[in-house]
Amino acid sequence: MQQLYHQIYILQQQLAQCMDRLGKIEQQLDDGSNEQRSPSTIHIEKIEYKFDQLKVETLEGTLSIGLSPTELAKHNVEIPCCDTADPTYEQTRQFIENQIPTIFAGHSSIVDPAGQPISKEQLTDQLLQQLPQRTEQLKANHKGPAPLSNEQLTALLNRDVAHALHALRAQQPKSGEEGSH
User: Origin, by domain of life (predicted)?
Assistant: First the structure.
């Protein structure tokens, strides 16, 4: 019987040791999870980017880098565009000049995607400034056996301009002055 008491006593001591170890392990886990719950704060003061070239294959949404077109107009900045003697450029310019009054006929004013007022002339200039890049992109994406003809290129540019103008018109604020679109 005494041997039985002795075994119970040993088992009680082992159980107490296990309980102590378990308590220490739980304490370590609690300390570690508290450290993970409150991570240290990192403060970044300044990030500088310098690009020689930036290639964008797909762009959706609004991207504003540097001066906005409205700010450019305030500073009277001239941006070289493209060869104005090019028949594709001239035909697209005429298309733009004809489409803007037609598409925005019911609007007393036009606002850019950032919500800033923009004149029809500024909108025309912005679209014309994008022609060289858009032309190169259309030529690069063309998968036909022969290069695009001037007529095909003009038709594609006019399609893209019309799409852009209709998308901009859809973003215009609704007002009582504006009639039906």
Answer: Bacteria
pLDDT tens-digit series, residues 130-141:
888 888 888 888
User: What does the pLDDT look like over 92-115, one tens digit per residue?
Assistant: 888 888 888 887 787 778 888 888
Quote the number of domains for the chain: 1
Q: Is residue 176 part of a domain?
A: no
Task: Enter the DSSP assignment of 1.
Answer: -
d(CA 159, CA 153): 10
Say if residues 123 and 170 touch (Cβ distance below 8 Å): no
Q: Is residue 100 part of a domain?
A: yes
Task: Tell me if 165 sits within 8 A of 105, measured CB to CB.
Answer: no
Residue 117 lies in a domain: yes
Q: How far apart are CA 173 and CA 15, in angstroms?
A: 75
At a CB cut-off of 8 Å and minimum separation 6, what does 86 contact?
none
pLDDT tens-place string over residues 51-88 = 666 666 776 666 555 555 566 555 554 444 455 567 88
Tell me whether residue 114 is in a domain: yes
